[in-house]
Amino acid sequence: MAEIVPSVKLLDYPRDPLAVMYVAYRTCYSSLPPQVIRRRVDEGKISREAMLEFLERWLPTGHGSPKQQVSFTFGLSGMSRITSHQFVRHHVGIVFDQQSQRYVEFKGADFPYVVPPTWVKAKMAERYVGLMAQAAQLYQDALAAGIPGEDARYVLPHSAATNIQFTVDFEELLHIADQRLCTRAQWEIRHFWAKVRGEVGKAVPELKKFIQPKCGEYRLGYCDETLGDYQKCPLSRVRPHKSMIPKRPIVTMSLQDDPPDPSVLVTDPIGQTHVDSTAGESATTLHRTNDESPGKD
User: Fold this and answer.
1) Contact criterion met (CB below 8 Å) for 6 and 77
2) Percentage of the chain exceeding pLDDT 90
3) Which of 54, 80, 138, 215 could be stapled to 114 by a disulfide with Cβ–Cβ 3.0 to 4.6 Å?
4) Residue 248 annotated to the active site
């Protein structure tokens, strides 16, 4: 078997992602046009420290469109088909192009595949590799017998490795981190998304800290999984469970009511902005709903 080295490489990204998001947010709440705001950034009148301090307050909120204006393109290799099936279930704000097993035929009596570390730990790796060798030989025999590659591939296992190029906006990158950096996610996709985080961190160090599992201080701020799963997680020593978060009463507002005074708006750890119950009005939900459960696959 050819050695499989899982790899993620950041291939392309905006010249200044912080400035793109900063100007996008500011445009919504400023009388100045974005051209003027960006010129002030480029001229150094707005420092990177000031932009980062601003983004630290705004990135955790539900105002997602500025995050969608920043995209990153990655090259990925050495991922099993099992994990790629999980990965491509993310479909909002991300696009994929994946190596085809129909048009790409593996040559020789072998094909690249992933060996889970648990098989090695259980001292069963030799049997695992033997089964892969049988599949590889049958695949080659099928091709030699004239069976087209698109049909011969049916004998290839889910462990077969694949290559993907994908482009993802920053909001979806954070959303995938919510689910796939969680300790309930399977080891392989968790490791790959940690590599994505590392690549972004090398290119734009200021953004790395925002890429967290959903319990992180810049995301939900607490674990929303079952209490049993929370208690198994090593992060339970430093991050609370949802049952530990005091519930804030929210009063509903009818269409006839006057809009609340912005001075009494508060933002809770989940990114919901609503009126403090002591001031007494209603709620406007701003957070993005997650559509993937980390333990689903």
Assistant:
1) yes
2) 77
3) 80
4) no
Between CA 107 and CA 85 the distance in angstroms is 24
Tally the C-alpha atoms within 13 A of residue 15's C-alpha that lie toward its C-beta.
2
Beta strand extents in 14-140 (DSSP E only): 71-80, 94-98
Distance CA 5, CA 18 (A): 32
- Taking only the tens place, the pLDDT of each residue in 19-69 is 999 999 999 999 999 999 999 999 999 999 999 999 999 999 889 999 999
Segment holding 67, helix H or strand E: helix 65-68
Look up tokens 């009818």; give the residue: 254
Active-site entry in 153, 180, 197, 219 = 180
Determine contact, residues 77/113, Cβ cutoff 8 Å.
no
The position carrying tokens 């992180």 is 216
pLDDT in tens, 75-85: 999 999 999 99
Dihedral angle of Cα 72, 96, 113, 294, to the nearest 10 degrees: 80
Counting every residue, how long is the chain?
Answer: 297
DSSP string, 210-227: T---TTSTTTTSSB-S-H
Residue 117 CA, chain-centre distance (Å), reads 23
pLDDT of residue 110: 77
Domain boundaries, the chain: 227-284
Encoded tokens for 147: 């069976």
Report whether pLDDT(89) > 60.
yes
Whether the pLDDT of residue 270 is over 70: the answer is: no
